[in-house]
């Protein structure tokens, strides 16, 4: 079978940190299909041109929004409904409207990797990860775009878990995560220009604005050391082998 190649990073007018997760090789010789699975930052500023390009050029069918209800109430979901995309929301982190949530959330960590591990050790969080994976495993939802706000952390965790399940090498997962680093300055500047977002940013530590490879390396190596693999960890937390099989069937060529 001929395996086509495409551009990984795609630039839009008002959708940032957007890339195709296709093309990554798995350890058993398969490949993640191009133009089937995408990741990005939030879509609430998406222009009509952006929406048309997603629909016409990429054939996008579904959007999986990982933001909280509070974020969605504040910023909305933009042109997603009008564009005809199937919409799913799995809120991986919920603030409950608490303005001090970020301050408490990050104070005990020095990098994002430690924070990611903290999240994934919580059954409630893993249950939501499994729920999101179930959406991705459904072929009728493809091509699908998963996103949060910056497209770095919640999206980064879900992407890392997903790619690990289907057999992508750790170094490729780390490299993909690190691609978000170049978008962080754009995000900071944009947040400063929007009063509501600028206020939210004040409580975030400096390390939050990084997409350091060391953070993702710590996340993956810690789970592998303790459970043999990300897949092994998820099994202990309730994920089924049938979910893994569905993901492999849906995403690999």
Topology:
Elements (H helix, E strand, L loop, with lengths): L18 E2 L16 E4 L7 H9 L5 E4 L3 H7 L10 E4 L11 H6 L5 H9 L2 H14 L7 E4 L6 H12 L4 H9 L5 H10 L1 H7 L11 H15 L2 H7 L4 H11 L2
Helix pairs in contact: 4-10, 6-7, 7-10, 8-9, 10-11
Question: What is the number of beta strands?
Answer: 5
Mean pLDDT over all positions? 92
Largest sheet: 5 strands, mixed
Q: Give the class from helix and strand content and strand pairing.
A: alpha/beta
Please, what is the CATH homologous superfamily? Protein tyrosine phosphatase superfamily
Order of helices and strands: EEHEHEHHHEHHHHHHH
What percentage of amino acids are in beta strands? 5-15%
Number of helices: 12
CATH topology: Protein-Tyrosine Phosphatase, Chain A
CATH class: Alpha Beta
Low-pLDDT sequence parts: none
Shape type: globular
Distance between the termini: 9 Å
CATH architectural grouping: Alpha-Beta Complex
Radius of gyration: 17 Å
| Strand order in the sheet with the most strands | 1-2-5-3-4
The number of domains is: 1
Summarize the amount of helix as a percent range: 40-55%
